[in-house]
Amino acid sequence: MKVWVDSERCQGHTLCAMIAPESFELSDIDGTASPVN
After folding, report:
1. Which of 21, 23, 24, 30 is the most exposed place for a label (fewest CB within 10 A)?
2. Each residue's pLDDT tens digit, 6-34
3. Taking the domains of the chain in order of start, what are their residue ranges?
4. Residue 33: helix, strand or coil by DSSP?
5. Kind plus residue range of the DSSP H or E element containing 26
6. How far is residue 28's CA from residue 15's CA, in Å, rounded to a whole number?
7. Do residues 1 and 19 touch, judged by C-beta distance below 8 A?
8. The pTM is what?
């Protein structure tokens, strides 16, 4: 699956990680979400 994040629309609430935890991971350092490779 390809994931594309529109950084202009992303508000940084990590809702993507809550909705699709298999596709996003949370950083232990700053709490941001990023796509899983």
Report:
1. 30
2. 878 877 788 888 888 998 999 999 988 88
3. 12-37
4. strand
5. strand 24-26
6. 16
7. no
8. 0.62
